[in-house]
Automatic annotation (TrEMBL):
Gene3D superfamilies: 3.30.70.100. It comes from the Bacteria. Signal peptide: none annotated. It holds the Pfam family Dabb. InterPro entries: Dabb, Dimeric_a/b-barrel. Residues 2-93 form the Stress-response A/B barrel domain. This is Dabb family protein.
Length: 102
């Protein structure tokens, strides 16, 4: 399984309508794309650089590749992500395999 994580900071002020609208739209990605499992939106509560995170799982690399090519995902990136995200980091991990088996 692949765990895909992306942590980000928006250009919008905290608590703004624009922030809420972006997050609401982001939350629709999970249900809209069949290969996404365990989709979560998380909020930073410590002193990290990024305020928000999206976490999701994929059963394998092919499922992850389908997600990246899915029209709903591509539209979200073009119409929202590229315009409204100030900074981000994306991390992907193999889950469930023993260390050193890759």
């Amino acid at each position: 399984m692949i765990r895909h994580t992306v942590f980000f900071r928006l250009k919008h002020p905290h608590g703004s309508i624009a922030e809420a609208d972006f997050l609401s739209r982001a939350m629709k990605l999970g249900p809209a794309i069949p290969d996404v499992r365990n989709f979560q939106c998380v909020r930073q509560v410590g002193k990290g650089e990024y305020d928000w995170g999206l976490l999701m799982d994929f059963v394998d690399q092919e499922a992850y590749d389908r997600y990246n090519a899915h029209p709903v995902f591509e539209m979200f990136v073009t119409e929202r992500w590229q315009l409204e995200v100030e900074a981000f980091v994306e991390l992907d991990y193999m889950v469930g395999d023993e260390p050193g088996e890759h």
